[in-house]
Amino acid sequence: MLELRPSCECCDKDLPxxxxxxxxxSFECTFCTDCxxxxxxxxxxxxxxxxVARPRRPVEKLVNSPATTERxxxxxxxxxxx
Length: 82
Known about the structure:
Layout: E1 22-24, E2 30-32, H1 33-38, E3 52-53, H2 59-62
Antiparallel strand pairs: 1-2, 1-3
């Protein structure tokens, strides 16, 4: 099950479960649309994988399967893909 991480690893922007701006790679590294396009050019800086739109979990399913609250943030921001 996807963790639905709560923020962008590059800029720390909030990305709640219902966000349409979240992008993820196959390892669930999570970034906002702006960082994905402007900085990362569509590639994960951690693994080099493709960044795609993160699916949204239906609200009623969040009750029993909540999103994680653990934030992952690169203090120096992102420098581009691997």
